[in-house]
Amino acid sequence: MKIGVYFCHCGSNISDKINPDKVKDVIERVDEVAYFDTVDFMCGEEGKEEVEAGIKENQPDRIVIAACSPRDHENTFRKVCIRAGLNPYLMQMVNIREHIAWVTADSDKAVAKANAYIKAAIARVKLHEPLEKEELEILPNVLVIGAGPAGLKTSLSLAEAGRKVTLVEKSPLIGGLPVSFDEVFPNLECGPCMLEPILDEVLHGEVSENIEILTLSEIEDVAGYFGNFIVKVRQKPRYINLDKCIGCGECIGPCPVSTDNEFNYNLDKRKAIAMPFLGALPNAPFIDDKICLRSAGYWGQGCVFCRNACPVPEAVNYDDVEKIHEKKVGAIVLAVGSDTYDVKKIPELQYGKQPDVYTSLEFERILTPTGPTEGVINTMEGEAPKTAAIVHCVGSLDKNHMDYCSAICCQSAFKYNKLISKHHPETKIVHFYKELSLAGKEEFFLYNQVRGNPNTSFVRYKDITDLHIKTKGGKQIIEYKNSHQKNDKVNADLVILCPALVPSKEIDKLNQLLDTTVDHFGFFEELHSRIDSVQTKIRGIYIAGTCQAPVDIQKTMNQGMAASGYILSSLVEGRKIEIDPIKAWVDQDICAACGVCGTVCPYKAISFNEKTARSYVNKVLCHGCGTCVAACPVGAIIGNHFTNDAIYAEIEEVLA
Amino acid sequence: MISQSGFEPKIIGFLCNWCSYAGADQAGTMQNPYPPNVNVIRVMCTGRIDPQFVLKAYDKGADGVLILGCHPGNCHYKEGNYRAVQRYSILLRVLKQFGIEEKRCRFDYVSAGEGDKFVRIMNEMVETVKELGPLNNKN
User: Which residues of A51-64 are buried (b: 16+ CB within 10 A; e: fewer)?
Assistant: First the structure.
């Protein structure tokens, strides 16, 4: 074997401490070293050309480059190798600058150490195998789960780039929470109006053909990897033909059965055939087959009231059935949103027991003209509230509940203040808060207005259990201890609780299906919380909106766009994905079928083939960490480029 | 214990690429000298370190071994450092059976920004192994 050794002076950074001639004397005599060359600045253009010419001229089988850190320039010199016609993995770098020249006081010791390192690299590089990057075909299509603001933004921007998108939504409507809000902070803009242009584009716009919307649908199964996922989607029957329904709502009135209306948080009733609320899109009702008389079997097949009321033939379709859709996509975006904290876990607040205590989501619906009270803010007794209390930080910033700040509640609370005052200017409103969190250029907007309202006051509390909501003398009151531990009470005809945003149950389910990870709160975990917060640790699966963390609509939209950006830059139509060859693989002849490797792989890249009774590493999912290589008890797993033999050779030679 | 005069220990340092090797690079950039006794072997992740590498190092003449990885929670590969520290704790028991002192095998965390910590560990380890003396003398 013919080995070439290159020594970089790095100006004088290296050669001042490590005399190249002394190194040359030793290294030239090492077996199979064909030549030893020095270069002044190897990473400079001239230096690279010199090395390239040297390789072309001498035709070495392997080369060793003694220079700076491979973290700086391994890729630089791999490219030089490629240009010179040498497989880039037949090169080994030795870090004689950062690890020797710059940190060794004595010159002779530095020379001796450099010689040992270079000899170890020579021993190692002899064992290197030429490796090739592999290429894999990809599918440019994308599946987005959740049709709230994040999912809609991602879907629309991908569709605009010409991608086919499947948008999967569990509920019968798209738009997520903000379309059910009357006004959104900070500018008190109408929620549906704000989202309307996006919803319209997604449903009927120029690129809407690129988006397939599957409402009433959930993910059943996911297989595959970045570029090639196969997703099974289960879609419940809607019993309404969306292509035919004109959204007139004539069918709803005649329906003879009612149930609690979950779209208004059970504050009113809806029919078995229902629209979530007026204006919900797609503009078509759905039939709840759990209570519809036809499926419930009370009247057998008899009840046809809704179909008879419908002016369009075949828009109501009693024969609709559950469907399984199989989607082949290259990437998946998770935008399933979050839940709010169950305030019943804080019994002092008497939620569900006192008549006029609402959660923030319930109150959002009360504020809405399409909601249960048609926008009227009254007490249960039908009177305008003389007093109202808005409780911030319910379950947030609380070690007994959720540790974190939920980021959006303060602004929602001040929005409620503004809207109550708009309806009832005389109502006295008190804010109970633990902390006020209003960082940003627009976040103080509502707070400043509310501060100026003479009917608004603030009470800081220390612990949520210091607040007790009670009825005394026919009046709803809050007895409390403030942050100075002073006891007091206040009338509160109306109480609005602002609960923490918490991970939804969907996250748990999807996390198991997709092998992603969740953080210790239960939100989807980011690849990196600062620099890659829209990617999960599984390549090709992205997260946007409040399933990553509590965020407002602005950040949600930005995350939706970021997810599109990642997809458009990494999953390019017509371009294959390149797979780095520094990966692990299982020698099928040696594998003893114990399955240990699968349990230590952090990326679920190793699967066990029941038929062959052997483990198998998926090259796309493998990140090349080598944990499985070290774990295999029979040495059946080979870590490319970091093989046991290469590392043993390095150990042996550096100690020789 | 009095260190044996003139004894220069041979130490192998297994460093993960992303944190500890980068920390060693930072120590280099700081140009703060440390003893040259530690020979670094780069692996992508401490999770790659087979305990047999450590045994091989002692077998081939190392007087000490260092394993340096990312801090808990910072592993580039999510959890390779947890595997490494698990293996390390078992390895210590094996070393005991070989009559190799625990102090000859040190596991620590060095981040990419901890060049100074890397230098301190280099100095400490060399000092520790000097005090213990050559490994071969004991067996």
Answer: bbebbeeeebbbbb
> Tens digits of per-residue pLDDT, A188-208?
999 999 999 999 999 999 999
Say if the Cβ atoms of A602 and B87 lie within 8 Å: no
CA–CA–CA angle A192, A195, A196 (5° rounding): 75
pLDDT over threshold 70, residue A569: yes
- List of chain A residues whose C-beta atoms are within 8 Å of the C-beta of residue B28: 69, 95, 97-99, 102-103
Q: For A628, which residue in chain B has the nearest alpha carbon?
A: B48
How many Å lie between the alpha carbon of A169 and the closest alpha carbon of chain B? 31
Task: Report which of A109, A22, A18 is spatially closest to residue A67, judged by C-alpha positions.
Answer: A18
φ/ψ of residue A596, rounded to 5? -60, -40
* Regions of chain B short of the pLDDT cut 50: 1-2, 137-139
In tens, the pLDDT along A4-22 reads: 999 999 999 999 999 999 9
Residue of B32, B68, B77 to mutate, interface with A, max A Cβ within 10 Å: B77
Q: A215: which strand partners? A: none
Find where tokens 């320039």 sit.
Answer: A73
**Cβ contacts of A644 on chain B, cutoff 8 Å:** 50, 52
The SS3 call for residue B55 is: helix
Task: Give the Cα separation of A124 and A32 in Å (integer).
Answer: 13
Q: Are strands A494-499 and A91-95 parallel, antiparallel or unpaired?
A: unpaired
pTM for the model stands at 0.80
Report CA Rg, chain B: 14
- Look up residue B70 and give its DSSP letter: P
